[in-house]
Structures are given as C-alpha cells and as structure tokens.
Design a protein that fits this description.
The protein is of the alpha/beta class. The protein has helices at 2-28, 48-57, 78-94, 107-118, 142-147, 157-160, 169-172, 180-186, 190-193, 202-209, 250-253, 259-265, 285-292; strands at 34-37, 63-65, 100-105, 124-130, 214-219, 236-237, 243-244, 268-272.
C-alpha cells in the first residue's frame, strides 16, 4: 500500500511540477500585454470571451480593453478617437519593456492604424486587425440603415463628403468607388492614412507604422457588415464594384504606408475564416486559435 501511494504521488508530481513550472515561467517571464480596441457601438463589456481565450492560452497575460468611446460615442470623429485611445494606451506601452500587442476590432482597427501611424515611440509587436474595414466601407448594411435611414450606399456620399459628414466616424472611412475624387478630397481620415491625398506626414507615418513586427489581417466571406469583406484584408471595389485584391491595389504596389514592405519581410499574415458573422469575430474560439493565438507570444 505504501509503495502504491508513493508511486501515485510520484506520478502526480511528475505531472504537477511541469505545470507549476510553466505557470511560474509565465508569471516571471510574462507574455506581452494585450490591448484591445473595440468597434462601432461596442464597449469593453463585449470582449469577455476574447479575454478568457487569451488568459486560458497565455496565463497571466495582462489584457486591457480600452473603455472609451463606447456605444454611441463611437460615432465621434476618428481623429478624436485616435487621440483619446492614444492617451489611454501610451502609459501601458511605457510600462511594457518588451512591447505590447494590439487586437483591434472593426472600426477599432482603423483607430489603431491612426495610433500606429502617428505615435513614433509605440512598441506594438503584433497588430491584429479583426474584421476591420481597412480599405474603407461601401455597403447597405443594417448599421447604415440604422444610422442613416434616409440614405442608401449610392447616395450617402452626399452627406459623408461634407464638413458635417466628416464629423461622423463612419463617414471618415466611407469609400464610394463611384465618387473617387470626392472621397480623396473629402476624407479627413482614411484618404490620409492611405496617402491617397497628398500628406506631408506620409514618410514619417510609414516609418512609424513599420515598427510593428507582424500585421495580421482577419476577415471572412460571411461577415455581413464589412463591405466588401475583402476590405478587412485591404481589398476593395473598383468603379464597377469588382473587388481588386490587396496585392493589386495601388496602395500596396506603391507601398504607400508599408504593406509591401511587411509582405517582403514575411510579416504580413492573412487569415480568412468562413461562416463567421461580424458580431461574433471576437467571441469565436476557432478564430482565436486559428488566427490570433500564435501572434500573442
């Protein structure tokens, strides 16, 4: 009986000690902090599942969902949101000697691009863009019907490409392929980020953006909100509403803010997952394990 107990105890120890060692290593060495930026009409409360996935996969990770511009406040102009989120995020960066990771969902992915472009001293390792309209938005979605019931995609440019319209976040990245000149000349946000309009800061912004170690672009054909869904991976419509993939886009070919450089470095990751509707990207465990987990070391 004594031998049996001792043998059993040894087996338990053999299993327990490596686990305790792993936990100790995680607490001592630590995983890089993860900063999550929400999207349109979201709040920090919507990311409980994603936080759980991260902490199960990487125990001890410091995960912060920035609680700013929640719900209707997410309609504030994009540059205002960039400055607000930047002020909240910068202290976390300063306390992370080995850097941080970004997970930025939907509209939040464009907020994060603004931060990465304009913050020269950022220390972001992985920038995970989770179903974000990186090349712009152009679609008759439920969001559009809710926000602008008197408009459809074909005539929203009448509002968005005005001074009043540019005070609404979605208009800052509304990209009407049939009114390209109006978009380029009127967009106070996306056209500048993409250097589609002359931008005196373009060189500096590109340098800042390229400080990231990995860019992970996540999206899928069943999203239902990001239109076209390929915008989540920098594809977009031409003037016939035919999708032109990222590698054929002018902003890639001319490497205006660093996409081509990232691809050449091997640091541009495309992750497409079918069957995921827009509101479920951050709570889908398969998406986390397939597209995010490995980039959060």
């Amino acid at each position: 009986m004594f031998l049996t107990r001792r043998s059993s105890s040894s087996r338990v120890s053999a299993l327990l000690y490596p686990l305790l060692g792993a936990c100790f290593w995680a607490s001592v060495a630590g995983y890089k902090p993860v900063i999550i930026v929400h999207g349109l009409f979201d709040s920090s409360e919507d990311f409980k599942n994603l936080k759980m996935f991260i902490n199960q996969s990487h125990p001890g990770t410091n995960v912060t969902v920035i609680d700013l511009f929640d719900r209707s406040a997410s309609l504030e102009p994009m540059w205002k949101q960039v400055e607000g989120f930047k002020a909240a995020i910068y202290p976390i960066m300063q306390n992370a000697a080995d850097g941080v990771h970004f997970i930025c969902y939907s509209q939040g992915g464009l907020v994060c691009r603004g931060i990465l472009s304009t913050l020269s001293e950022h220390n972001v390792n992985s920038f995970i863009s989770l179903s974000s309209p990186q090349a712009g938005q152009y679609g008759d979605t439920d969001y559009l019907k809710y926000l602008f019931p008197q408009f459809v995609k074909s005539n929203l440019y009448h509002l968005c490409y005005t001074g009043v319209g540019q005070r609404i976040s979605i208009c800052n990245y509304w990209n009407d392929p049939h009114h390209r000149d109006l978009y380029v000349n009127s967009s106070d946000y996306l056209a500048l980020l993409n250097s589609e309009r002359a931008n005196p800061n373009a060189t500096e912004w590109k340098k800042n953006f390229l400080k990231i170690k990995k860019l992970v672009l996540i999206g899928g054909p069943d999203d239902g909100v990001i239109t076209p869904w390929q915008s989540s991976q920098f594809g977009f419509y031409d003037n016939n509403e035919t999708v032109i993939e990222m590698q054929e886009q002018d902003l890639f070919l001319r490497d205006v803010f660093g996409l081509k450089t990232l691809a050449a470095r091997g640091d541009l990751i495309i992750c497409s997952v079918p069957g995921v509707q827009h509101v479920f990207w951050h709570s889908n465990e398969t998406v986390f394990h397939t597209c995010m987990e490995k980039w959060l070391e």
